Amino acid sequence: MIIKDENGRVDILSLSYDELCEQITALGEKKFRASQLYEWLHVKRVDSFDKMTNLSAQFRARLDELFCLKSLFIVKRLESCTDNTLKYLYRLPDGNHVEAVVMEYNHGTTICISTQVGCKMGCNFCASTIAGFRRDLLPSEMLLEIYTAQRDSGRKITGAVLMGIGEPLDNYDNVICFLDLLSNDKGMNMSLRHVSLSTCGLVPRIRELAELGLGLTLSISLHATNDEMRSSIMPVNKKYNITELIKACKDYFAKTGRRISFEYALIDGVNDSPESADELAALLGGFVCHINIIPVNKIKERNYTSSRKSAQRFRSMLEERGLNATVRRTLGADINAACGQLRREYEI
Ligand code: SAH
Fold first, then answer.
1. Is the pTM here over 0.85, yes or no?
2. Is the CB of residue 339 below 6 angstroms from any atom belonging to ligand 1?
3. Domains in the chain, start-ordered, CATH in brackets?
4. Which of 16, 43, 174, 283 lies at 20 to 30 Å from 36 by C-alpha?
5. If residue 261 lies in a helix (H) or strand (E), which one and from where to where?
6. Does the annotation mark 99 as catalytic?
C-alpha cells in the first residue's frame, strides 16, 4: 500500500513486494535491487537504510530521500515471573502508544498485537476503548510490533493474534495489507494458519473477509447470549444483532471451511447463569465451532468480577448442553498483560 508521510516520503515497510519492485525499477534500478531491499526490510529487519551494506552509499542516500523507514521505541518491557510472557509498550513515530504481548505456548511463540491506537467500539468492560480512539495503525506499524519484539526478545515468533488494542475489522484495508506482508514467502513468511483475528462483530466486514479465504482463524467476541444483554455491554450489537452475526459466522464457515472461535468473557451475575448456557446452546448448538471462556479481567471503571472457578462451572454447563468449550489459560497475570491496561496507565 502506498502511504506517504508529511514530507511526501513513501512508507517503505507498507509496500507489497510488487509495489516495492515498481518503485525501485522506476528509479532506473534493476529488479534484483528491490529483492535485496525487501530482504533487508522483512528478513534481516534492519531499522535504517545505512545498515543495508550490500547497497551503494549513493543508493542508500537516495532511498533515504524518497522513503521513510519507521521504527518503534520500546518504552516499557515487562517480563512475567510465572510464565515467560513478555509485554511491550511501544511509542509510535508520532508519539502515540500501543501494546503487544509475546506468549509461549507448547506449539510455539505467539504475539498479540494492537491494530489501532484506542478503539471506537465502546465495549463497556474493555480498557482499550475507555480512553477513546486516536487513529488506525499502518501496515508497517503492525509489522513493526512483531519485528521489534522478535529482535528484542531473541525469540522466534511463529504466530500472531490480532487481539490487542483496537478493532481489526474497523481498520480493514491496513489489516489486509499487513496480513499479506506478514505471510509473504520472501519476507516474514508466517502461515496465516497461525494467525487469529478477533472482532466484536462488524458483519459486512466478516462477509468481505470470507470472500478472501485467507486461512486465518476468525474469533468472535460474543460475550452475551441475547440482544438485550449484548447491547448493554457491547454497543456494536445495536448495529449488527446476534442473529445477523451468527448468520454471518455460519456463512463464513460454509465459505472457508475454517472453524470459528467464540470468545466469552464471563462476568458474574451478567452472563453466567444456566439460562445463558441454554441460550448459547440454542445459538450455537450443531455449529462446528469452539467457545473460549475468559474470566473477565477487572478494570477500575467497572465492578465486573469473575474467577477461574466460575469459568469452570460455566464450561461444565456448556458441555452438558453439547457445546465445545475451554477456559482460556491466563498468561502474564502478574504483569497486567490484559489488553489496553498498560497504555492507559501511561497516557492518562
Ligand atoms: N476489537 C477486537 C479485538 C480486541 S479485544 C474484539 O473485540 O474482538 C480482544 C479480546 O479481549 C476481545 O474478545 C475482547 O472482548 C476481550 N476483552 C476486552 N476487555 C476484556 C476484559 N476486561 N476481560 C476479558 N476480556 C476482555
1. yes
2. yes
3. 10-68 (1.10.150.530), 73-347 (3.20.20.70)
4. 174
5. strand 260-266
6. yes
